[in-house]
Structure formats: structure tokens, C-alpha cells
Amino acid sequence: MIRRFAVLAALAAVCAAVELVAGRGMSPGAVWEVLGGGGDATERHILLQLRLPRLLVALCAGASLAVAGLVLQSALRNPLAGPEVTGVTPGAVLGAVTATALGLAGWDSPLAVVLAACAGGCAGAALLWLLADRGRGDPAQTAVHGVLVSAVLGGLTAMVLLVEPGELGSVVQWLVGTTEGRVWQHWHLLWPWALAWGTAAWLLTGPLTLLRCGDDIALAAGLSARRARTLALLCAVALTAGAVAAVGALGFVGLLVPHLAVALFGADLRVSLPGAAAVGAVVVCGADAAAQLSSRLLAAALEAGRLTLPVGALTACLGAALLLVVVRRTPGRTF
What transmembrane ranges does the database entry give (predicted)? Predict the structure, then answer.
């Protein structure tokens, strides 16, 4: 396990280095010059005030979504459960877009956008909780209600767009997910939140392990399944809301990364939960670096002055392709 964590740390370092040199406006040589203490004021601003916080936000958001996904899949005993089934992701998008449309927040005020997204995410989770009869529903009913809540919140977002068509760019950014324009304020808001709720999730690894075995076994072991599932869902909601508030809805990260973490680190959640955080950070950081490189290559090929490929579009495409491959290779498996 130590060797596998070391490999992930090395991969994270490689992805971070690639992301720092992949963006526009600076050559790789200028990046290394700034890291060595040189460079002019513009280059230092680009690297230290734009690229570095973007890198840290990508790492933290990926870790948060992966941990939230593993917690959800364990608590709901559903391998296809992801942060989207809680209604948090579409709720956060709706909150951010609505606040922007009303003029209460904007991309020039990260704190207001983050607070609006968190409020929307918590409202989506509360709506799910009411529909699921305050936690008395079984895991399958919770997942189904989550899909319905997500659909309703997505429809409300579309209605906001009809009322304020000028917010199309904001809607797309939040729906797809992007790390573009993330600054130190986003990082300072995200990491304490992610650390606190990630620690709480790790402290629930024992009850989560029993929940994965079924409510009957959990009750036989003296565990209140309802209370443990409530606390686990609260952690997943909080982690998802924080990540979505910072980078938008990154597709398939919370769904597929937990499976990869369990395959690498086993079923012991005391190990696989931090493993999921490491894998999620590497995946999102690597996808962001690949998105920036692809943007530069596409801009050069199409002779476009500025072309940006959102990282969420890349994770959604790769995640959907990977899920299709897994399903086709195991047609007899019941999900």
C-alpha cells in the first residue's frame, strides 16, 4: 500500500508539473525561471497568482468528489451512486447561476459565488431528504429520489436561463465544470472545508464498512443504520457542495474514481478512502493539464486566437467511454 501511495504521489507531481507549464502566456522555460526566483512581474503574476491556485483547486476538488463518491456508494450500497444522486451538484449550479442572474454574485466575487453554490447544494440535499421521508427510505429509494431531484433542479436552471439569457456563459461553465480563472480566494475557501469534512468521512469508515454489508448486519453489530447513513450522506453532501462551488459539475469523477480506488487499495475504507482522495486529485489534475494542452493544440490547428477546453468536458467524455467499456466487458454483471 505504501508503494502504491508513493506511485500516486509521483503521478500527482508529474501532473502538477505538466499543468504548470501547459497553459498559455508563458513558455516552459519561463515557468522554471519563475520557480527559480527570476522572471518579470507579468510572468510571476501568471504563475503564482493564476496557475498555482488553479492547480491546487483542481487537486482539492478532485479529492473531495472522489471521497464523496466512495462515501455515497458505501452508504447507499449502490456501485452507480455518485454525487449527482444527492441533488447537490445541480443544486449548487442552480444557486450559483441564480445569484449571478440576480446580480448578487459574479466571477469577480468568488466568495459570493461559492456561498451561493453551497446554499444551492444544501437546498438540493434538503429537498432530497424531504422526499426520502427524512432518511426512513431505503438506499434504493434515496438514489431514485436523487435522480428526480436532480432533474427538477436542472429544469429550474434552464428556466433561469430563459429569464436571463445573458447568463448562458455562466450556466455552461457551472454545468460542465472548469478550473479556469480560479484564484487564491477559491483555494482558501475550499481546502479548510474539504479537510474538515474529509476527516469526518474518514472517522466514519467503521460504520460505512458495516453499512456496505447490509442494514441487518449493521444492526446485529449494534450500529444504528439510519443514523450512520445520515451522517455519511451529510459528509458526502458537504464535500460535493464545496467542490462544485469551486469548479462546477465535473462529470464522472465521483462515480468512477471510487471503483478505481477500491481496485487499487482494497475494500478496507480506512485505506481506500484516502486512496480515493489521492486518485481523484491525480485524475482531475491530469485531466486539467490534458485540457490545457489540448486547447493549445486545437487553437494552433484551427488558427484560433483563444480556445478553451473545460476540464469537465474531458472528464465527462473519458468517464462515459470508460463506463461503456466496463459495461460491455461485463455484460452479466448486475449494477
Answer: 52-73, 85-105, 111-131, 143-163, 190-211, 231-256, 307-327
Asked if the structure places residue 171 within a domain, the reply is yes
Burial of 86 (0-12, 13-18, 19+ CB in 10 A): buried
* Rounded-to-integer distance, Cα 177 and Cα 256, Å: 17
- Owner of C-alpha cell 469526518: 200
Write the single-letter amino acid at 308: T
Q: Does residue 334 lie within any of the structural domains?
A: no
Domain-embedded: residue 186 = yes
Q: Which three cell numbers stand for residue 252?
A: 464522472
Which pLDDT band holds residue 15 (cuts at 50, 70, 90)? very high
The domain in which residue 59 lies consists of 1-329
* Cα R_g (the chain), whole angstroms: 20
Residues 244/188, Cβ–Cβ less than 8 Å: no
Confidence (pTM): 0.88
| 165 CB neighbour count, 10 Å cutoff | 10
State the pLDDT at residue 169. 62
Q: Look at residue 101 and tell me if it is in a domain.
A: yes
